[in-house]
């Protein structure tokens, strides 16, 4: 039997699919019961949270197991198998162990490092135990996953990762100003009421904002978060909840907006943000991405010769054939030019001409070609020679937005709006290469790898234990049989003599078996060591049913002795 997991999560499926595939408590129970009733599976447990549905099973056939588990997930979720299949992932044996340990440590969570998943894993195991669908493998696996998760949180700072992301995002919004100084007196709008949004709201409240408004699709969750903020002793913030249809009005009053929802589409479009800015200032919002030199309203019908450049006859391009919108200085214009033509083009752009009488030597041309090739290989294109265009000075931001959602909640076009500063996951990723949480994540990954190797070795070693026990039982039966035979042939031996003989024979057998059984356990614990149990059974002609009976007895004892 081998461990198999089939599932879907926020990393593989959109929220709309996860919502449709969500399982009630009764549906989860029926799913695991139907799984163990299926032919390939002997044990089963389901881990279902708001952003993942995973079915774990101990199966004897990989392909049949994947097909059966996928079909059962589709049947019980109500999403057709054909629709569900593209979003499913499969992990087998050590990869399945690695996946669950990573999940337990919070590495696979939407909020990296969150600890709520440990309680969900514990509940999943408890349900499987109540339904008698968890045997030795899944009990060992889930209990070890809980220990690994607790170790990761106690030995690293992984549980600070989510907080680090929020704090780092606010620091990026504050642009060098201490966050408490920047946040003091501001009004904040938090969109979403999940763990990351809750953390952002609490962080803003501690930083000193005057008001936090919470908007969420489920109004009760927004009310609950606002109530927690109001009742907290570590801040004096005013908090209230609103429905999602009130967000547009709240945008005109907020100074800071933090959004982290599970939406698959945009929550705030660039038009909505621009409208909110106009509502605050009373004037249309400018596009800070437009240049002062070439306003979009003043675009010419055809490209004129750029100011300050040489005469048209000195340009190596056919300007008359250039289409509207074609840049005579762009990489498309110079693509494929040889060194001499590139030099002439650059000189024309700079406003001068090339004196052919003072041409460089062939060696100099070769150096130019080599330099151009090296630059193209590095940056992926031929460099342009152009004069910098004057850019309109961007006004200081007065409206701050932090998008912590993936996929994004806030339109990236908001970056172009004057007076608005947007920080999103993409910009945070670029700026956070040296963030403390990166080191914590790496440390947790090392812990997971070590624990997966240890768990695999222990499981492989345990698989040979019933065979070793059966071998020693057979040896004890042989000793007992030979002692009884000796008693019949030598009836004159007294009890002391019989005892000495019995002990001597037992010592001989124990010494003969000790080294081989210890060594075979060590070999079986190594990767690929599963075949040693089969070899032992074959060499000593052990009864397979005896081995299976020892294994069943061990499982029964562990179940009886396991704490509730």
TrEMBL record:
Subunit and interaction comment: Homodimer.
NCBIfam families: hemA, PRK00045.1-3
Function: Catalyzes the NADPH-dependent reduction of glutamyl-tRNA(Glu) to glutamate 1-semialdehyde (GSA).
Lineage, uppermost ranks: Bacteria, Bacillati, Actinomycetota, Actinomycetes, Kitasatosporales
Domain Tetrapyrrole biosynthesis glutamyl-tRNA reductase dimerisation: from-to ranges: 443-542
Gene3D superfamilies: Glutamyl-tRNA reductase, N-terminal domain, NAD(P)-binding Rossmann-like Domain
Further information: During catalysis, the active site Cys acts as a nucleophile attacking the alpha-carbonyl group of tRNA-bound glutamate with the formation of a thioester intermediate between enzyme and glutamate, and the concomitant release of tRNA(Glu). The thioester intermediate is finally reduced by direct hydride transfer from NADPH, to form the product GSA.
Species of provenance: Streptomyces argyrophylli
Name the record gives this protein: Glutamyl-tRNA reductase
Residues the record lists as binding substrate: 49-52, 109, 114-116, 120
One annotated GO biological process: protoporphyrinogen IX biosynthetic process from glutamate
Active-site positions on this chain: 50
Chain positions recorded as NADP(+) binding sites: 192-197
Pfam family name, one: GlutR_dimer
Recorded GO MF terms: glutamyl-tRNA reductase activity; NADP binding
Site (described: Important for activity): 99
Residue ranges occupied by any Glutamyl-tRNA reductase N-terminal domain in the UniProt entry: 6-156
Alphabetized InterPro entries for the sequence: 4pyrrol_synth_GluRdtase, 4pyrrol_synth_GluRdtase_dimer, 4pyrrol_synth_GluRdtase_N, GluRdtase_CS, GluRdtase_dimer_dom_sf, GluRdtase_N_sf, NAD(P)-bd_dom_sf, Shikm_DH/Glu-tRNA_Rdtase
Keyword Oxidoreductase in record: yes
Annotated EC: 1.2.1.70
UniProt free text on domains: Possesses an unusual extended V-shaped dimeric structure with each monomer consisting of three distinct domains arranged along a curved 'spinal' alpha-helix. The N-terminal catalytic domain specifically recognizes the glutamate moiety of the substrate. The second domain is the NADPH-binding domain, and the third C-terminal domain is responsible for dimerization.
Region: Disordered, residue numbers: 283-314
